[in-house]
Amino acid sequence: MNGDSTLASFHATVRGRVQGVFFRAFVRRHATALGLTGYVRNLAQLRAVEVEAEGERSQLEELLKRLYQGPPRASVEKVEVTWGDYAGNFSDFKIRKSV
User: Fold this and answer.
1) Do residues 36 and 7 lie in contact, with contact meaning Cβ atoms separated by under 8 Å?
2) Would you call 89 a catalytic residue per the annotation?
3) What does the pLDDT read at residue 5?
4) Is 24 known to be catalytic?
5) Annotated catalytic residue: which of 2, 15, 17, 24?
6) 20 HSE (CA, 13 A, CB side)
7) Domain ranges of the chain
8) What single-letter DSSP state applies at residue 23?
9) Choosing from 17, 28, 41, 42, which is the catalytic residue?
10) If one looks up domain 17-88 in CATH, what number appears?
11) Contact (CB, 8 A) for 46 and 35
């Protein structure tokens, strides 16, 4: 990353049939390939998936497109996204334990 103003972050909550369909692995694979850092985890009580990602804005927008699609067995109903500033809070992209 080059440290210019194109760096950003987003927090997303993905709702629908997104648990038990390899959604977290799908997100981690794409985020890593795009050079992004952050995490993905299940929100068990909401039956949703949470994604926190940082990196180049164009790469984040590409990941966001993937969130709307999901893996083959997923059915995404809604993606709620909040954009923010890049903070450099993560060193890689991980699957975190469900909450």
Assistant:
1) no
2) no
3) 56
4) yes
5) 24
6) 4
7) 17-88
8) H
9) 42
10) 3.30.70.100
11) no
